[in-house]
Write a structure and sequence with these properties.
five-stranded mixed sheet; Sulfite Oxidase, Chain A, domain 2; single chain; 7 helices; alpha+beta
Length: 238
């Protein structure tokens, strides 16, 4: 069972765009969601995820395993797409580390790179299968040496977005700091630096990263603070 291929392509290209209509729909959904108290938001988020998982099955999204065309790579940018000057770009890694470090873009390119096919499922329903090239986060952390009591990494982004994940989850998923997708570098996909965590929902994949703060305590990111699952493994309702 599935939907018309032409309609599928149209939906994928809508998800890949950054139109005012798309952003208006995202913001409307956010404001309708945020008016509810936090306990009810969790219930609504779980119900929404359940519906999306069902829709993905009946529309064929769950069976999309081929490489996603570059012009159909879905992305969401609630606050719009910032333009980052690569010549001035830096990412600071600090907090609970022995050797705080500021990396320039060329510093990241000089590190050993990895390229692999990575799947990303958005909590909103679309899926990307893309070849991503970047640096393993574990290689960067090996340079800065997190302290023995370090627990989570908090990612601060150029558009104001903040997300956090346990270091153990990042290590297990071979999380990657990505600087190209399908051999292309596009602002809309998080260039010059975004995170990829296979198996986690897309809101755990922050884009336009400027700082990685290592912390010793539990800290929630933007969407988990508002009711979405913090663990965020694809399929999680809580």
């Amino acid at each position: 069972m599935g939907i018309n291929p032409t309609l599928q392509r149209s939906v994928r290209r809508f998800n890949a765009g950054n139109s005012l209509l798309k952003r208006a729909i995202i913001r409307l959904g956010y404001y309708l969601f945020i008016v509810f108290p936090p306990p009810l938001r969790r219930v609504l988020a779980a119900a929404f995820i359940e519906v999306v998982l069902f829709v993905k099955k009946v529309t064929g999204v769950e069976r999309q395993d081929g490489l996603t065309a570059q012009n159909e790579v879905g992305t969401l940018s609630f606050w719009g797409v910032p333009t980052v000057d690569v010549a001035r770009f830096t990412v600071t890694v600090d907090g609970a580390v022995e050797n705080p470090r500021l990396f320039r873009y060329d510093d990241l390119l000089a590190l050993s790179s990895t390229e692999r096919l990575i799947r990303m499922d958005c909590v909103g329903g679309f899926r990307n299968n893309t070849m991503m090239r970047g640096v393993l986060l574990s290689d960067v952390l090996a340079i800065v040496q997190p302290t023995t009591d370090a627990r989570r990494a908090v990612f601060h982004c150029a558009d104001g977005y903040v997300e956090a994940s346990p270091l153990a989850d990042l290590e297990a998923a071979r999380a990657t700091l990505v600087y190209s997708t399908n051999q292309a570098s596009e602002d809309r996909l998080g260039y010059p630096l975004r995170l990829a965590i296979p198996g986690k929902y897309g809101y755990k994949w922050p884009k336009w990263i400027q700082r990685i703060e290592i912390v010793t305590h539990h800290r929630l990111g933007y969407w988990p603070q508002r009711g979405l699952p913090d663990r965020a493994e694809v399929g999680d309702r809580w």
